[in-house]
Automatic annotation (TrEMBL), chain A:
Keywords: Phosphoprotein. Pfam families: Response_reg (PF00072). This is Response regulator rcp1. InterPro entries: CheY-like_superfamily, Sig_transdc_resp-reg_receiver, TCS_response_regulator. The lineage of its organism: Bacteria, Pseudomonadati, Bacteroidota, Flavobacteriia, Flavobacteriales. It comes from Flavobacterium anhuiense. Signal peptide: none annotated. GO terms for biological process: phosphorelay signal transduction system. The modification 4-aspartylphosphate is found at D61.
Length: 149, 594
């Protein structure tokens, strides 16, 4: 259980997806603070700005203009004060290549964007309530891609 | 080097020859000596004979004088005195001859001296006899004395002459005996020596003719093989050259000239001509390689272009090796290949490969479009529909609710189609990594993937033991999912589905029409169900993409599932067949190579 509101950051260029995401967080009963960036450049600027509080979980779309999600991921993992942020890849693609690449680059979980709003809520709930310390230590290729029971 | 026959006999032949020649030389020297000896002995005989004659002449001259004197004394006719007058000269002539003949013989000289003294005394006695027989000075007693003395002198002369003759004879005998001894030793010896030499020569003649026969045979073989080599060189478009590093001589095979576009033996090759026809681009590298041969005594493959006199460019590949022949000279054996055809084919293949790569890339980008860009709007349609809450639906008209449901099912169908198409194209394009896994494991994975529907339909799946095979694991798992899923989907409405899966090993020769014959053994995996089955006339068409036997309202599906199965099995060089009896069930048989 979290004492303070979780700080969530979504990097996604798609307006509709940001809307779904926002609505889903509003409907689940967990206290969260959700903010958005629209592309990779904006994301990196946001993270590098010391005035901004670092997110607890970053939801990262792969297919973004200016700087792709993969580039951001690599950059984040190379930066000392950012590398411990929990990163959930949040993408339409479910290609083996993307899953493999992001796993190797150190993302914590891979979420394929669902096509049902209720499923989205379930996924967000799952990701937010997971004990990340426990999950990260047991992370492997099989449980990297999030599958809802 | 094995291909040069070894004539060991040549050395022993040489020895035999030398021996035979020496024997013959020896024999001829003996013959020469014999000849000399014979000559010597005949000269000796002549010598003795001459002395003998001269002595006889001397004797007869004195006798003539004696007879003439006697006749004169008796008759007092001066004509009887003529032989007496001449005898003195005759004696002197013979004496000079004898002196010459016995010049090398001291005892005979002394004898001759004594004889001369005796003869002189005899002539003095003649004078005395004539003096005392003359009527003017006649003295019977003195005449008798001198006549008698003359007689004794005569006896002495005869004795001396005989002695001299004897000495000569003895000497002759002695010499002849020595020669005889020398000669009598040899005939048997020389004949046997001659026979030995003859047999040696015969022996070597036999050996020579035998070697000659062998040489002829090898020569014939060499001719045949060199003919074959030059024939195969022109058939195989390769050529050979030999570079004698010691004498720096280079030999080209006939085909080498032909490969260069020239008549055979049209020039005498040397180190410079090796480079003459090489394309200017490659001259430097080939020259370097040639220098490398001398250092490393070896030539790794060199690829280069040559320009023929008619300016046609050909592609060459050259290799070489240093060999040492029987005489110990170092020869670099080089082989040139004209690889122009292969090279051009290679270029063509490379171009085709590039085209293939390009089209593969296009396919991959199409996949990306399908997986990402096409799904994006679809996903949004579905999400927005899911956001239409039940409360929203309450206020909607019946027809509006109906449209929403229809949009929902169409969108769902679109998603299934896209997913299946993606799956189908991925069975082609994704990397095919073969790993040895247990098929039983893959099957149980497939079952757990289908657990929901299996439970829902209360299906029973019976599996016999499946082998461990080298396969692309996720594809075979997909194959099992599709086949079992298919059976579950087309089960009979009132009967609980039963699927039995069995496996056996078969020989490809038992299925000559459908199986790859280069692979000997296959695993035949049979999926038998008790479902509704299909008309056997469709047993081929059901594997074709988008072919459906049922309406999509009764059985939702894309018509891709079995096409994927076929693709997967083909990826494994296997085969899949289907058979069915309508209303009784279907059998799908998968053949996978061992």
């Amino acid at each position: 259980m979290q004492k303070n509101a979780l700080h969530i950051l979504l990097a996604d260029d798609d307006e509709d997806d940001r809307l779904f995401f926002k609505d889903a967080f509003e409907e689940i009963k967990i206290q969260t603070n959700v903010s958005f960036v629209h592309d990779g450049m904006q994301l990196m600027d946001h993270l590098m700005n010391p005035d901004n509080k670092l997110p607890d979980i970053l939801f990262l779309d792969l297919n973004m203009p200016k700087k792709t999600g993969k580039e951001c991921l690599i950059e984040i993992k190379k930066t000392d004060h950012l590398k411990d942020i929990i990163i959930a890849i949040y993408s339409t693609s479910s290609s083996e290549e993307d899953i493999e690449d992001t796993f190797i680059q150190g993302a914590n979980i891979y979420i394929k964007k669902p096509s049902d709003f209720n499923t989205l809520k379930k996924i967000i709930n799952e990701v937010v309530t997971v004990n990340w310390h426990y999950h990260t230590s047991g992370l492997n290729r099989d449980n990297f891609l999030l599958r809802l029971k | 080097m094995k291909w040069i026959p070894n004539f060991n006999s040549s050395n022993s032949l040489r020895v035999i020859f030398v021996i035979a020649v020496f024997i013959l030389l020896f024999l001829s020297s003996i013959a020469y000596k014999h000849n000399q000896d014979l000559n010597e002995s005949s000269k000796l005989v002549m010598h003795t004979y001459e002395i003998n004659i001269q002595l006889e002449r001397l004797m007869s001259a004195i006798k003539d004088a004696e007879t003439g004197q006697r006749g004169y004394i008796i008759t007092r006719n001066a004509r009887f005195l003529t032989p007496y007058i001449y005898s003195r000269d005759k004696v002197n002539t013979s004496f000079i001859a004898l002196k010459k003949l016995t010049a090398d013989n001291k005892p005979q000289q002394e004898n001759l001296q004594k004889l001369f003294k005796l003869i002189t005394q005899r002539f003095v006695s003649f004078e005395n006899c004539l003096k005392y027989s003359d009527p003017k000075t006649y003295d019977k007693r003195k005449l008798d004395n001198h006549m008698f003395g003359g007689r004794i002198l005569m006896e002495n002369i005869r004795f001396k002459v005989d002695e001299m003759n004897d000495i000569e004879k003895t000497y002759l005998k002695k010499r002849l005996k020595i020669y005889d001894a020398e000669i009598s030793l040899s005939p048997l010896f020389s004949v046997s020596l001659f026979l030995v030499a003859l047999s040696f020569i015969l022996l070597s003649y036999r050996q020579i003719s035998r070697d000659f026969e062998r040489l002829k045979v090898f020569n014939k073989k060499l001719l045949i093989s060199s003919g074959l080599i030059s024939e195969s060189e022109s058939i195989g478009k390769f050529s050979t050259w030999q570079w004698d590093l010691d004498s720096d001589k280079i030999d080209f095979s006939d085909n080498q000239f032909r490969l260069l576009g020239l008549e055979p033996k049209s020039f005498a090759p040397n180190k410079a001509t090796l480079l003459k026809y090489v394309h200017p681009d490659d001259k430097e590298s080939v020259a370097k390689a040639i220098d490398g041969i001398v250092d490393k005594k070896d030539l790794p493959f060199v690829y280069y272009k040559i320009v023929r006199p008619d300016f046609e460019v050909r592609y060459f590949k050259t290799t070489g090796k240093l060999v040492t022949d029987q005489q110990g000279s170092k020869i670099l054996l080089g082989i040139n290949f004209d690889i122009t055809d292969e090279h051009l084919l290679n270029i063509e293949l490379q171009e085709r490969n590039k085209e293939l790569e390009k089209s593969n890339k296009e396919l991959a980008s199409f996949n990306h479009v399908a997986s990402h860009d096409l799904q994006e709007p679809l996903r949004k349609i579905q999400t927005f529909i899911s956001r239409v809450s039940d409360a929203d639906k309450e206020v909607m008209s019946e027809s509006g609710k109906n449209y929403i449901t229809k949009i929902e099912s169409s969108a769902k169908r679109m998603r299934v189609l896209i997913d299946d198409l993606l799956l189908f194209s991925r069975t082609n394009t994704t990397k095919k990594e073969f790993i040895k896994v247990s098929l039983s494991e893959l099957l149980s994975n497939a079952e757990s993937e289908l657990a929901e529907i299996i439970e829902e339909k209360k299906a029973v799946i019976r599996v016999s033991k499946l082998p461990k095979l080298s396969v692309i694991p996720y594809q075979v798992e997909q194959l099992f999912i599709n086949l079992i899923g298919n059976s579950l989907k087309y089960s009979q409405p009132d009967i609980e589905p039963e699927i039995s899966i069995s496996c056996e090993k078969v020989n490809s020769s038992d299925y000559p029409e459908i199986l790859e014959q280069s692979i000997k053994k296959f695993h035949k995996i049979t999926f038998t169900d008790n479902g509704m089955g299909f008309d056997p006339q469709f047993k081929e068409t059901i594997f074709i993409l988008f072919q459906r036997l049922h309406s999509k309202t009764d059985y939702p599906g894309t018509g891709i599932g079995l096409a994927i199965c076929k693709k997967i099995v083909e990826n494994h060089k296997g085969h899949i067949i289907a058979d069915s009896t309508l209303g009784k069930g279907s059998i799908f048989t998968v053949f996978l190579p061992d």
